Amino acid sequence: MDLSNLSSGELRKLQEQLQQELKKRESQDLARAREEILAIAKSVGVSVQDLVGGVAPRVKTGKVAPQYRNPADTSQEWTGRGRQPKWVKDWVDAGNDVAALKL
What SS3 class is residue 87? Predict the structure, then answer.
């Protein structure tokens, strides 16, 4: 197919049709793969869970308590995990020690 002769509108329409067809085919492929996996598991007499190794779901441990508090605004707290909030970065950039913010 020579796309160079198509107008912008025709190309957009073709793109939309392609996206719809891709969604449809991905859905069909997924359904077919599921059926094949179930058939394999059934043929050997095991459950799908046993077949994939019985991966246990991750257990949530709950909310982590804050470890640091902004002295200028006590409503701003940080657990010490992940990226430093802007107020912590500003505090450190001003030459202060993060340990001074510890609760």
Answer: helix
Query: Could you report the per-residue pLDDT of 51-81, keeping only the tens digit for each?
Result: 776 666 777 778 889 999 999 999 999 999 9
Count of beta carbons in the 10 Å neighbourhood of residue 93: 8
- Amino acid identity of residue 8, one-letter, is S
Tokens at 86, concatenated: 């802007």
Which residue is associated with the tokens 């441990």? Answer: 61
DSSP conformation letters of 33-78: HHHHHHHHHHHHT--HHHHTT-PPPPPP--PPPP-EE-SS-TT-EE
d(CA 5, CA 14): 13
- The C-alpha atoms of residue 96 and residue 71 are separated, in whole angstroms, by 12
Q: Within 10 Å of residue 48's Cβ, how many Cβ atoms?
A: 13
pTM of the predicted model, to two decimals?
0.43
